[in-house]
Amino acid sequence: MSMGRAWRTVPGLTGTYLLAGLFAVGAAFPLYWMVVAALQPGRELFSYPPRLLPRLGELGVFGRLFATQPMLVWLANTVLVATGVALISVGLAVLAAYALSRFRFPGRTGIQFVLLLTQMLPSTVLIVPLFILFRQLHMLNTRTAIVLAQAALVAPIAVWIIKAFMDTIPVEIEEAALIDGCSPLAVLGRITLPLAAPSIVAAFAMSFFEAWNVFVYALTFAPDRELWVSAVGLASWIGELTTPVEIMMSGAVVFALPSVVVFLALQQRLVGGLSAGALH
Amino acid sequence: MPHPSGGRRQAWLPYALVGPLLALIALFVLYPMAHGVRVSLYDSRDLVPRPDEFAGLANFAWLWRSPATVKSVRVTVLYVAVTTAAATLIGLASALVLNASFRGRALFRAAVTIPWGTPLVASALIWFWMFDPQYGVVNYGVRLLGLGTQGIAWLISPQWALPAVMTVDVWRTFPFGTLVLLTALQGIDPDLYGASAVDGAGRTAVFRHIVLPSIRPSLLILGLLYTIWGMKRFDTIWILTQGGPADATNVLSVFIYREAFRNFRVGQASALALVGAGLGLLAAIAYFALEKRDEHG
Fold it and tell me: Which of A125, A128, A267 sits opposite B276 (nearest CB)?
């Protein structure tokens, strides 16, 4: 295994550490800076030169965040929307992934092309007609509108993540059950689903956090303040000049933390699914 | 692997399994797309076109003549080209470094890839503060490095706003490239390196003749995904600049949104959306052609 790294890009261990450190600091610094800015008394934010270390005694900022901003409402809306999106997209994706992985049928390639197509359009292309559609359906200013529109965009990625994993499960196990007289649906439920569980968990997390990000759909289809999701709420602080910087940054911390943690834990599987989807 | 037995017995089953997903996509992606084509042919200020407003291709003619469209297409192409190239190159460079084996590699990898897990709106907020003309850490860095004594008003300068929003995008997306290329690099057969060592090939030669051909498919996919994502980018740009100043960051997705929901020119916005979709499709076809040519040598 270690033979695979016999070829080095960088001469010497010191050079490797230096460059790896450079990339790591460059990538992580903005998040560090977010934490520093959140944990500072307001006046110190405007000092020169800037304080480079956070004051860990300033955790009270999070109390002020929840006391002065409707952050709890925004988070609750976000969790509702994200859960809805994840349940719908993964529920439908499991069935579709099973069909695409285990059956060869006319139209299969066409369907995969349509799934790919959904990923190529900017959401703003769809937003005007979707706005019209939701108005006709009397669904403007509902969280359901956000959920349905977002689920349709996220589900194809969930299909790829689950299908890529199902493709690696040997079909012989299922064959045996089929010969024993199980129906294909029973095979899916009793054998394939449990085996594919890791990919289903990854797809659920991916859908959940794609929806955690949802911004322009939420902004447009549910403009009522009490329906705002976190992304819309946080974005509303920019340009209104009344929300202090440390409050803005503490909000960003609360909003970013769950997403960062889950992506770090699952990144390998998510990356595999996304590039597998583009391949086929 | 297909089921040879199960597949034949119930030919309708795969359709029933894919059906619900397709219904969702048909209703909330395909139908709106088709409706968008219809709206683009009407002189519509309201969101529901009336028959007497039928305008034929007038919206497209308007777009063709409008300098704002020309500028927007130019900004979009520049934005997509630069962010795709930069994110791919930085992703490649960081993947090559992280491919070496050293103590603490997992920790470095986590740090490098952390931006990819950061929500877009949180990224926008962080960089908004970092780009602050007076108290922002970016200008502090500029002064520290002696590159200028006066702070740059990054997000409100017609000259710097585009590089600024591109920086946010590249920062956020390059780690995806790191991960994809790292996987590709670790999939290279170690024997290839051994053979080249025997041949006495130098570092550059190994990179050109062994590493690059092996990761070429991954680089292509990466380029395609970055191009698609670049065309779609809306959130960070809208939050940071709303397409300004003086349309300097008015990429198509922002332009469409402004036309439809600020200027209420829905017909024009829909025509613009089709132009955007067409550009996206062109990019996709170009990549697939490239991949095909690659496969056939």
Answer: A125
Report the DSSP beta bridge partners of residue B54: B42
Distance CA A106, CA A104 (A): 7
State percent of chain B over pLDDT 90: 43
Q: Which pTM value belongs to this model?
A: 0.89
CA A146 to chain CA mean position, Å: 15
Residues in chain B with CB shorter than 8 Å from the CB of A167 are 1
**Which tokens go with B165?**
């929003």
Q: What is the pLDDT confidence band of residue A5, given thresholds at 50, 70 and 90?
A: very low
- ipTM value of the model? 0.88
Give the chain A residue whose CA is nearest to the CA of B120: A213
Whether residue B130 contacts residue B137, with contact meaning beta carbons closer than 8 Å, is answered with yes
Q: Phi and psi dihedrals of B253, rounded to 5?
A: -65, -35
Q: Encode B107-156 in three state secondary structure.
A: HHHHHHHHHHHCCHHHHHHHHHHHCCCCCCHHHHHHHHCCCCCCCCCHHH
CA distance B198 to chain A (A): 13
- CA B164 to chain centroid, in Å, comes to 16
Are A125 and A216 spatial neighbours (Cβ–Cβ below 8 Å)? no
For the stretch B96-143, pLDDT in tens is 999 988 888 889 999 999 999 999 999 999 999 999 988 889 999 988
Peptide bond into B14 cis (omega under 30): no
Buried b (16+ CB within 10 A) or exposed e, A180-214: eebebeebbeebbeeebeebbebbbbbbbbbbbbb
